[in-house]
Amino acid sequence: MAGESEGNSLQSFSPKNESNTTNDINLETLRRRVRKYIEMHLYQAAIFWADKVASLSNEEAQDIFWLAQSLYYSGQYHRAAICIKSRNLHK
């Protein structure tokens, strides 16, 4: 049955088999991607990737800056300001 095959694959997955995702993902490559999209004026794509990088890096200041910059360039000024102020990076 369909449910059985799904159940078997879910049973083989366990947290102890899960590796640290930030080690598997090269954050520097994703950061370059964000900067590339900003340079190409593809701000929505930059916002998407900047948000992912910020989440994966536990909201490092440089990643929040790139996210806020992408938001600002796309005309989302209020969201950019909130992005920075909510993390006390404006001081």
List keywords for this structure.
Serine Threonine Protein Phosphatase 5, Tetratricopeptide repeat; single chain; about 90 residues; mainly alpha; 6 helices
Report on this model:
- With 91 residues, the chain is mostly helical.
- It has a domain at 24-86: Serine Threonine Protein Phosphatase 5, Tetratricopeptide repeat.
- It is built from six helices and no strands.
- It has helices at residues 2-12, 21-24, 27-39, 43-56, 61-73, 77-85.
- α3 (27-39) packs parallel to α5 (61-73) and α5 (61-73) packs antiparallel against α6 (77-85).
- The chain is flat.
- 20% of the residues are buried.
- Residues 9-19 have low confidence and may be disordered.
- This is Cell division cycle protein 16.
- Pfam families: ANAPC3.
- InterPro entries: TPR-like_helical_dom_sf.
- Residues 1-25 are annotated as: Disordered.
Task: Provide a quick synopsis of the model.
This is Cell division cycle protein 16. By secondary structure, the chain is mostly helical. It has a domain at 24-86: Serine Threonine Protein Phosphatase 5, Tetratricopeptide repeat (Alpha Horseshoe), CATH 1.25.40.10.
Mean pLDDT: 84
Radius of gyration: 18 Å
Which CATH class of one domain applies here?
Answer: Mainly Alpha
* Structural classification: mainly alpha
Tell me, what's the shape? Answer: flat
Under the CATH scheme, which architecture of one domain would be assigned? Alpha Horseshoe
Report how far the terminal alpha carbons are from each other.
59 Å
Total helices: the number is 6
- Unreliable spans are 9-19
Pfam families: ANAPC3
Keywords: Cell cycle, Cell division
Protein name: Cell division cycle protein 16
Organism: Araneus ventricosus
